[in-house]
Amino acid sequence: IARNPHESEFHQAVKEILDSLVPVFEKHPRYRESGILERIVEPERVISFRVPWVDDQGNVKVNRGFRVQFNSAIGPYKGGLRFHPSVNASIIKFLGFEQIFKNSLTGQPIGGGKGGSDFDPKGKSDGEIMRFTQSFMTELYKYIGPDEDVPAGDIGVGAREIGYMFGQYKRIRGGYEAGVLTGKSVVYGGSLTRTEATGYGTVYFVDEMLRSKGLGFGGSTVVVSGSGNVSIYAIEKAQQFGAKVVACSDSNGYVYDPNGIKLDTVKRLKEVERKRISEYVKEHPTAEYHEGCSGIWSIPCDIALPCATQNEIDADAAKLLVANGVKAVGEGANMPSTLEAIDVFLSNGVLFGPAKAANAGGVAVSALEMAQNSMRYSWTFEEVDAKLHGIMKNIYESSVKAAREYGYEGNLVVGANIAGFLRVADAMMLQGVI
Ligand code: NDP
């Protein structure tokens, strides 16, 4: 804490991991002796840079860009870029730290990194978005490459932003290095199923948790927060599995539709027209819109899928969900539950799928995008979806197994952290003091 002052999100992410690793360090003192802990919490590299750009009125604007290259023990740094006004070093470090273990859990050869900017894409014209992303890439290109560091999207960064960044990278570097970014449009090297992967993967993971108790999505009531990339495809897969999704949100408020959310409307409003979720009720008058996004957790549901942002479920929201009978929570967003909220879920027997495991489907398919780019080949939607489903089952099983082995049967927070850690720690040990 003294070494990283004012980085509360980073401290929270590190505390969750370190608490889980106590039984590992007791059983295997070699990790302590080789200083793995001290090394793993220190990023290999932190890059911070100026991003100057000109808005539509001709004013010069300056934002701050970040890339944290956290750990490359098992592969090139891999992790998304977030454009949101709240972005700072603490948020990028927490995301990069989590990414190490998540990427390890996928079983693929990818290290951990994360980046972004405090740029706010809301209300910006297409031209402004392009000029900003080009300026951002004009600095970032020095540090990335298909075998070095492969960024992708996150909050505020979708296919449009990736496209502009890819174009700028190509202009500067020459050649055609398709594998330098993932989340590309399929017309120039993107992977089918990447858009759907995080949301679908979260639902596949929760489905495994439910099946272990003889339950399923069929006939259940589901609440999904957010209405961005992860939320939309979590809603889609939950509906395909027979659930009724009754609510979704954005940072201003939430929509409750007792008849079930009409996903076509949400997709058009959010993906095409880039409007607010409040517009939904104009087309579906039987639905209700409520100001304030946290109220969404007061809606009774069997399954809650927080898919918006960090710390969106605190202890009070968790208690409300429990009192209303929630059976399972799957984290589609990164760190959406506070440490206190997780305690509430675990101590009340709620099936809890932590972000590192439950939302790893996005980065897993990003790694499949890299593989396809290297092969100069592309798999069909069904092929990628089947691989994604298999990877999510494996992540579930390895988390269950690690939890059992270390005496925390059923605790997937501990299981995922340990399973993710062991692979990276062993790789670091084999590579000497690096
Ligand atoms: P998007 O930008 O597509 O969507 C984010 C959604 O969350 C929007 O509906 C947004 O509303 C809402 N939101 C953002 N900030 C807040 C806030 N402070 N309070 C309430 N709602 C908020 O991002 P993604 O769907 O890509 O990412 C969502 C989460 O999933 C993030 O935590 C991200 O790190 C995580 N994730 C994403 C992956 C991916 O593949 N995209 C992979 C793994 C994790 P508004 O429009 O009002 O801002």
TrEMBL record:
Highest taxon of the source? Bacteria
InterPro entries named in the record: Aminoacid_DH-like_N_sf, Glu/Leu/Phe/Val/Trp_DH, Glu/Leu/Phe/Val/Trp_DH_C, Glu/Leu/Phe/Val/Trp_DH_dimer, Glu_DH, Glu_Leu_Phe_Val_DH, NAD(P)-bd_dom_sf, NAD_bind_Glu_DH
Query: Which parts of the sequence bind substrate?
Result: 78, 99, 102, 153, 366
Q: Where is this site: Important for catalysis?
A: 154
CDD domains per the UniProt record, alphabetical: NAD_bind_2_Glu_DH (cd05313)
Instruction: Using the record's annotation, list all stretches that form the Glutamate/phenylalanine/leucine/valine/L-tryptophan dehydrogenase C-terminal domain.
Output: 191-432
Which residues take part in binding NAD(+)? 198, 229
* Catalytic residues (positions): 114
- Could you list this entry's UniProt keywords, alphabetically sorted: NAD, Nucleotide-binding, Oxidoreductase
Its cellular-component GO annotations read: cytosol
GO MF annotations for this entry?
Answer: glutamate dehydrogenase (NADP+) activity; nucleotide binding
Q: Which Pfam families match?
A: ELFV_dehydrog, ELFV_dehydrog_N
The record's section on NCBIfam families has: PRK09414.1 (NF006929)
**PANTHER family documented for this protein:** NADP-SPECIFIC GLUTAMATE DEHYDROGENASE 1-RELATED (PTHR43571:SF1)
Q: What is this protein called?
A: Glutamate dehydrogenase
Which species is listed as the source?
Paenibacillus flagellatus
